[in-house]
Amino acid sequence: MSRITATFEELARQGRQALVMYLTVGFPARESALEFIPAIVAGGADIIELGVPFSDPLADGASVQRATQQALLNGVNVNYCLQTVRDLRAGGILTPILFMGYLNPMMQYGIERFCADAAEAGVDGLIVPDLPPEEALELHSAAQAHDIDLIFLLAPTSTDERIRHVAAIATGFIYCVSLTGITGTRSEIPEELPRFLARVRAITTTPLAVGFGISEPRHARQVAEHADGVIVGSALLNIVEATAEQGVDAVREFVASMREAMDNSETLTTRVSSLGGG
Q1: At what angle do helices 111-121 and 137-145 cross, to 10 degrees?
Q2: Total number of domains constituting the chain
Q3: Is residue 55 part of a domain?
Q4: Do the beta carbons of residue 207 and residue 228 sit within 8 Å?
Q5: What residues make up the domain containing 47?
Q6: Entry pTM
Q7: Higher pLDDT, 92 or 247
Q8: Please, what's the largest Cα pairwise distance for the chain?
Q9: Which of 112, 228, 237, 272 has its CA 20 to 30 A from that of 258?
Q10: pLDDT tens string 154-169
C-alpha cells in the first residue's frame, strides 16, 4: 500500500478529509521549500504537492506562473527538486510528497530514470497535467514499477468514457478539477461541483481530491463536505509572496485555518470502506 493510499484510508477511519498543499520548489528563494514544508506539515497538511518548475506551465494561473518563473531564475531544475525531497526526508518529513510537473522535463531526464530517482528520493506520487491518460502507458508502467502513484486529472467536462479510463488506471487518488480553466483563486466554489463528483464517484471508489480555485477556509469546508481531499495551491503561494517578513508563521497559520475549516465540515457520506480501490 502506498503512503498516499494509507493516508486516505487512515483519514477516512477518522471521518476526515485530506488537506493537500502545493508549493513550487525554489520559490521565493531557492531553498524555501526546506523552510516552508515543515511549517505546512505543522499546520495540518496531510499531503505535500511540490511543483517542478517548467517554462510553459499551461495548466497554471498567474500565481503559479510567477512562482515558476522565479524558481527557474533561481536555477531550480529536476535534479534540484529531487534533492529537495531527499533533504526533506532526511529532516524527518514523513508526509506523502507528490511532484506536480510537466512531461517534457521528465522525458528529457528519461522516464525510467526519473521514476527510479524519484522513488529513491522519497517521492510518493506524480501529477502530470499535460499527459492524457490515453498516452500515459510509458510513465504509468515506470511509476508502477517503482511504487509511485500516478495521479490523473478529471474536469467537469470529462466524458463518462474518460472517467472510466482514468478510474481503471488511477492509484492514490483522482485529481478532480473544480472548474474549467487554469489554476488560481476564485471567489466561489462552482455550484455544479457536487454533481460532477457524484458522476465520478458512481464509477470509481478511488479517493477524489478537488483542486483549482480553493482559496479560503470556507471553500475548503464546502469542498470537504463532498470530496475525500482538498487541494490548495495558488492561495498558499499568494501568502508566501505577500508575507515576506512573517514567512513561516503566516504559512503555518494559513494551513491551520484550512485544516480547522475542513475538520468542522459536515461530511455528507461515509467512505471508510470504499477507499483504496482502482
Answers
A1: 30
A2: 1
A3: yes
A4: yes
A5: 3-263
A6: 0.90
A7: 92
A8: 49
A9: 272
A10: 999 999 999 999 999 9
